[in-house]
Design goal:
The structure is a homooctamer. The first copy, chain A, has helices at 2-24, 60-76, 105-119, 123-129, 169-182; strands spanning 43-45, 52-58, 82-87, 92-97, 148-153, 156-164. Chain A is α+β, with helices and mostly antiparallel strands. Chain A has a domain at 60-182: Beta-Lactamase. In chain A, the strands form two sheets. In chain A, strands 4-3-6-5 form a four-stranded antiparallel sheet. In chain A, helix 2 (60-76) packs across helix 5. The longest helix of chain A is centred in the first third of the chain and has 23 residues, at 2-24. Chains C and E meet through helix 3 of C and helix 3 of E. Strand 4 (92-97) of chain E pairs antiparallel with strand 4 of chain H, so a sheet runs across the interface.
């Protein structure tokens, strides 16, 4: 019965969600040499109706909170960046063009976010995979440059946060991770 | 009354969902002159975590079933069409370019599906809205031409099915509705 | 057996093809108010293998001949035009940018050819259909402006010829028809 | 001397800015039939260096505040919309895809914002101009549909706010105006 | 002999060019109801080599002079516009984004210039042709809105000048004509 | 003589075609270092009309069968992928976005399919060719990454199947080959 | 003095032009390590009017002749290719999609032609320049892959011919050169 | 020390600006291995209104002057190039397609200018950064090829000048620097 199964799912899911309330938001430190199968927690079959599935997304309020935390982290280090939050389907949810950020930063941030959520790993990790598969970077919408981090629920990607504009991609990614971390508060 | 019905729906959403197992898939016969607020059943807040929301989608198996039912309906009337199924975020899930369908049909089908899910109404109804708001059709990704139908759960759109290639948009839409109907079986 | 069925097809088809050798190339004078189902002769199932179908195309030599005949017809009337030949899948086979033709003519010719083969009718006829279905013209790749003509085999479209650059679309279409006619010689 | 001239400008400008602190943010009620020359207060020559000019922009913090106020206004009326803030050069500064907003709303919001800042008027007013100049809407990047409002300083446009997703453009524009109004607080 | 024929051409051409030195630069006041065949003076066959033809273009110095004259004319009337000069092949030669011009003006100016050179008439005239051929405006690259003017040599188009950003297209076109006129000086 | 040579080819080809009914569907193990001329069986001249040629395509039913077989193969290994089937002209016939597949997989699958049919080889083989011709990958529409496989009739490509979303391209290609194999059943 | 130097160039050029009647059409064997300044014979100032310059182009008849010669050369070696001829401004003049050529060949041919005319050298030579300037290949419109050849008059590029579809770029370029050679006949 | 110098700059920014009247226009010789935080002088908060900031731009007159100086410098060395000036937001302000410049030069010049202003360094320097971050060049709008130079005020980028078409990027950049230098006169 639909109603029951749904309740069951919510209850069961709530455990994981509660857990994630305690810190499971964060970028997986992906093992580039042995990529595991992508976790599936964020996509669930609907037991009562074979035709349907549920997917998990950030609310726009949460995505905005993360994006602002990202800019705040950059501001503390006197860096000018742009930030984007992309959902698990690759659709952009929030963009903020930071004051004084270079014009290239706006698109770059979106592509980093897209890349992080696509492979469920920080783009600094993903960039290393190009050593073995250099044409990965030719996939449309991607940018294999540090600065993107996935947002995860129970290990599955539900969003990506991308940052661009700082002097190095590592700095960009530090700010993106600050955005991810803000979601656990 | 809209307000009441919405309240009712939220409280007893599970009931409605159960009902849909019994046949609520289908295209809303939208009242173009008094468009109501879009129903929200397909997007739910996650009670355990303010940061999250759930969205409902067709499985690819269901979307493929609907697309094939669409082509079968067209074949019975000796029409050559293409069909597309687009999810509630506008992302294409399934496309089938029918044998002998005109080259214009492939893109047109996608745009009709996108339009139907965007406004939660058949595109034959939406086309009538242009009388009052002719520039609606300038929104990127849309095609205000009969042949698209929304897939609904509890009145909320979760997908759109678009068809193109038959000699008239009404025929196209008849086939799209056959695709929608196949999901209730 | 594959071999036999192929022979059968060729023999059967040859009747139609022979007919077309006697003049069936030409643009259908479409009846815009009662569009019939698109003829299917140019797409055939393969009796020996359910997985396969055959489609008919102009050779590049034939398409070039038609395109040159088109430019010759324009030159006789001192008009500067561009011409395009598009196959039944909408792929451009030949383009010729005529000497002194306006810069808009090159893309316009391709779109007219695409439109003519998509609906199997001259674009002068198709433009009239906008009275009943004005948003047809919003389908990507199309241009509902006189100057395009379909190339037909047994009534089915196998290519489109589009012309642009003359002072009127009717002149453009006259030249396109000259291109079509050249294929019957 | 640069410093002095700048101070002079700031002081002079401060009057206008102070005024605008008291409510001059808002969409000009443009007189569509007699469009005046675009005000220039937001672009100033630099008296000390003929090569330079200054332009005025919203900070990303202000733009985010306005975008959130827009979504809040929509939420109060139970509408699901997306919002975009575009600067006076047409570059997008902030986008927020609202929970449950239709997929068409994201691009539409940006185009409405772009249109409002381009002509320094609400898009509901601009849409009326199409009666006299119907091809205005063919300019790339624009959407002549209610839902966009300019942000002004001393009457000059410094940004545009665009909203899409509500059942009518007038509702969209009401929310956009709420976003504009939030900047005066 | 190549050399002789070239000389001949130059001498013959020089008459026309000399004439145009005396004022033939300017936008043809096209008769929209009876468009003549496009003049061909700007494209010449090369008598000595059937394979070659010559086309006439503005130098970049001339195009820049015209563009600056256009902006100067606008400045005199306190209007903020952008201007583009496009050659007879539709390639942009010069663009100037005027101080304080709206963001929509840059692309619009190019499209107006492209349209004017394509049909060898001011876009104010061309816009009237839409009454008889409304889908002309669907040709890629065009904008049928006042503000574009052709540059002619012996009646043939060699460039287009497009202006956008003023409150009306007629004003835009007045400035474009000022740019054309500057070439005769 | 043209006709004779054609006959010879058809006769020879018929043997192969008969064979293929028994399982010759499959990806050619291309020899990357000595690429042979592309086989031509899938394009045939029409003996009765020099203007025409026939091309062989999968039916949409066959393409859908192959795409579903591909997803089934991935599901058995708990992988989430998208799949595309592209015809010999590069036009997409079927796309299926698998449940839970990353957003990058949809476009990547199409490009892999396009690449496989373009060079009539698995993309894992084609990727190796980049060692000698690194700019091959700059050709529009291509992706030189394992995961694509051609569908062949008598050694000639009639379609391509592309898969993306698994942790490695080799896995993707295994699933694509399962799709190819399904056509021989 | 400007006028004199121009005259000198014209006179000098004329000799070369005469020579080219005797066979100077052909691809320059560019010295990649010491690229000389691009020859300018194909662009001439107009002595009678400082505002004007003349550029030299192939007629469409010549370009078609070259394209057909290219396809004929390929056919002799049983290769299936597409060919494009692009003028000195980068505008495509002729395209022919060869029978049975891979779908990637059409765009690739245009890009090779564009590249050859842009740098006035065969693309096989240009590809070698990437060793020193690897990002040259990121310039829009280019493809640094053998198969393109410039058409020259007096050493200056007036067109490019691009070929794609053969198993190697060297073969493609051989056919392109056959097209160039046909212009000298 | 960065922090101090920044403080100093803010306090005495006017001095630096005054100094720039005396020649501080010029391209920073960026230290690619230790990129500093981007200077912020060109973006200022508005002390009277927290919502606003000021950005500094070249006037179109200044940008045109620089572009013409660039072409003049190229002409002196008999090189044919195109030039573009892009503002700090990445929007193109001026383009000049030089007489006889290759068709690839127009887009390349814009991308070089965009790249130079984005990272506030000459593109010859930026190209070296690819050694450590090779995917930087995949950011949309960029071209990491010598020929671009930033225009700076007090060390902050306010524009970029890009040049393309000369036989080497170093030559292109020399001309771009001549354009920058013209602004100090």
């Amino acid at each position: 019965m639909k109603k029951l199964s749904l309740r069951t799912r919510v209850l069961t899911g709530a455990v994981a969600v509660a857990a994630l309330g305690a810190g499971t938001f964060g970028a997986m430190s992906a093992n580039a040499s042995t990529p595991a199968a992508a976790p599936a927690a964020a996509v669930k079959a609907d037991a009562a109706n074979d035709n349907l599935q549920q997917t998990t997304h950030l609310t726009v309020a949460a995505a905005t909170k993360a994006a602002r935390a990202t800019l705040d982290a950059a501001k503390k280090e006197n860096q000018r960046v742009s930030v984007a939050v992309v959902d698990r389907n690759g659709n952009t949810v929030v963009t903020l063009r930071g004051d004084g950020a270079g014009p290239q930063s706006y698109d770059a941030a979106q592509k980093k976010a897209f890349t992080a959520v696509s492979w469920n790993a920080p783009t600094s990790e993903l960039a290393k995979r190009l050593a073995n598969a250099p044409t990965l970077k030719d996939i449309p919408g991607t940018l294999f440059l540090a600065g993107g981090a996935p947002v995860q629920v129970s290990g599955a990607p539900i969003a990506g946060i991308g940052v661009a504009g700082a002097p190095s991609g590592d700095l960009d990614e530090k700010f993106a991770q600050a955005g991810v971390a803000s979601l656990a508060r």
